[in-house]
Amino acid sequence: MMAASIADGVSVLTNAAMEPEITDLAQFLIACGASIEGAGTSTIVITGKKILHGAEFTIVPDRIEAGTFMAAAAITRSCISLSPVIPSHVARMTEKLIEAGCKIKHIGLHALEVSAVSEEIGGDLRAFNIKTLPYPGFPTDLQAQCTALLTTCVGSSIIEESVFENRMHHAKELQKLGAEITVIGNSAIVGGKRPGRIALSGCRVRAADLRGGAALVLAGMAASGITEVENINQIDRGYERFDHKLHSLGADIRRET
Ligand SMILES: CC(=O)N[C@H]1[C@@H](OP(=O)(O)OP(=O)(O)OC[C@H]2O[C@@H](n3ccc(=O)[nH]c3=O)[C@H](O)[C@@H]2O)O[C@H](CO)[C@@H](O)[C@@H]1O
Ligand SMILES: C=C(OP(=O)(O)O)C(=O)O
Questions:
Q1: What is the residue with the minimal CA distance to atom 32 of ligand 1?
Q2: Alpha carbons 192 and 156: distance in angstroms, whole number
Q3: CA-to-CA distance for 42 and 119, rounded, in angstroms?
Q4: What pTM, to 2 d.p., does this model score?
Q5: Of 110, 31, 124, 109, which Cα lies nearest the Cα of 74?
Q6: How far from chain centre, in Å, is Cα 214?
Q7: Looking at the chain, which terminus has fewer C-beta neighbours within 10 angstroms, N or C?
Q8: Which protein residue's CA is at the shortest distance from atom 3 of ligand 2?
Q9: What is the Cβ-side half-sphere exposure of residue 257, based on CA atoms within 13 angstroms?
Q10: For the chain, what percent of residues have pLDDT higher than 90?
Q11: Which residues form the Enolpyruvate transferase domain (predicted)?
């Protein structure tokens, strides 16, 4: 879209992703004088302009960061409110957490409250299944965080990763924390909380990638004892001050320099 905005003539992008970030980029380019139609659908038509101009623009809230904090509330059985978030951008995550038993309240247009506190939800969280799909389906970038959450829920779940291959590295690390996970190709079967099964317990684990790393931090907050996550530069690629934000919510977390 960026290149086509200043290319000669009309460009048509087919099979385009329909994610909010695409629409947001299009809106920014339009604010800069570009001509773009169809962003947010699978076909985008761009008529090139000779020159663009500057514009002031506020970018869309990060739906994956929001979804990660929603998972953090759930895995620690806490209640948090988060903003700014566009509730429709985290709709699939909201549906899954409601299926698990969480209570989710809209506070105005750009804030949500997520509660997994057992007295408020009347029991413990239940397992749910996930199949990742292109937006507006369940995002691949929240799969790892939900896998961590599901290791603490009552019952077993099936996770199907259908967007991106090789996105199960966190499973092996979660196993080190005591989780029961069987990976079969791009799917995983997670055995959740069961009577007689030991809950997660802390140890040293390694972040192989961005979302898998975030998932290990979430698991570490739910685990007994101390969890050390190595290779956190992966997490820093996609979360600004993740440790500070979690600490401000009450997590016992610190960065080792
Ligand atoms: C619409 C959607 O859900 N996009 C996700 C996708 O975007 P992203 O655009 O990064 O993903 P790609 O389209 O590059 O890749 C998706 C899949 O297609 C395969 N592939 C890609 C190009 C190609 O020429 N041949 C091929 O086989 C890749 O190997 C992968 O399995 O992954 C990102 C990283 O997790 C997520 O942030 C995005 O939300
Ligand atoms: C996979 C992601 O990003 P990257 O391709 O930079 O690892 C992500 O945003 O979850």
A1: 164
A2: 5
A3: 44
A4: 0.96
A5: 124
A6: 9
A7: C
A8: 210
A9: 0
A10: 96
A11: 1-246
Beta strands in 39-93 (DSSP E): 44-47, 79-82
Distance 255 CA to ligand 2 centre (A): 22
Tell me which amino acid residue 17 is.
A
Which of 64, 132, 138, 210 for a ligand 2 pocket mutation test, highest count of atoms within 8 Å of Cβ?
210
Mean pLDDT of all residues belonging to the chain: 97
Domain residue ranges in the chain: 2-47, 63-248
**What's the CA-to-centroid distance between 212 and ligand 2, angstroms?**
10
Instruction: Quote the CATH superfamily of domain 63-248.
Output: Enolpyruvate transferase domain (3.65.10.10)
Strand partners, 80: 114
In this structure, which ligand is nearest to the CA of 134? 1
d(Cα 140, Cα 130) in Å, to the nearest integer?
Answer: 10
Confidence of residue 196 (pLDDT cuts 50, 70, 90): low
